[in-house]
Amino acid sequence: MLRGWSRRGREARAGGGSAGDPLDAVQERRVRAVLALGGVPQADLPDGVQQVRLRLLERAASGREAPRDVSAWAAVVASRLAVDWHRARRRQERLGERLAALRPPEHPSGEDRSVLSVAVAQGLDELPEAQRQVLVLRFYADLPVRSIAEQLGVPEGTVKSRLHAAVRALRARLHENEVV
Asked: Which end of the chain is more exposed for a tag (fewer CB within 10 A), N or C?
């Protein structure tokens, strides 16, 4: 049984679960039913029941008196959890919509990619070796500026200025050729 709860609270739990379990089988079924009727998917019901148990245990651990009717209290908590579940799902959906809106419209076709690849390759060939080197290491090898500086034995500021100049020159070249 839960320590620190009044006798009345323990009696209200009449037929409580196993030692340490604040919900008996009947109360657990009721919690599951409330969650299911609240629209929580079957796969999430065990987590919901555990949340109700946790809140009941936290209440006992804080020294507060047991609810007069544990079954009713658990049903109300389950109902609130169902509402929270729906709110979280809506938040996730809205987040997904916002992320989808940030994606580039459409990927270029195979032919457009080929033209772009050739133009980028030609642009890279026209860059000074030092600029080409940092550009390739940063954007193709995906190395951070600090790693590039360490590998080349130059200051980070030098890597950054070379990157800036290389990107500016490559962008100008692609615009010149009307590729982008």
From this structure: C
CA distance 14 to 7: 11
Which long-range CB contacts under 8 A does 26-33 form with residues at least 24 apart? 26/71, 27/70, 27/71, 27/74, 30/71, 30/74, 30/75, 30/78, 31/74, 31/75, 31/77, 31/78
Q: What is the rounded distance in angstroms from the CA atom of residue 49 to the CA atom of residue 94?
A: 27
Tokens of 35: 């969650």
Residue-level pLDDT at 54 = 92
Are 43 and 25 in contact by the 8 Å Cβ rule? The answer is no
Q: Pick out the chain residues at pLDDT < 50.
A: 1-17
Provide CB contacts within 8 A for 143, sequence distance 6+.
Answer: 137, 151
Q: Residues of the chain with pLDDT > 70: what percent?
A: 82
Question: What angle separates helix 110-126 from helix 156-176, to the nearest 10 degrees?
Answer: 130
Model confidence, pTM: 0.46
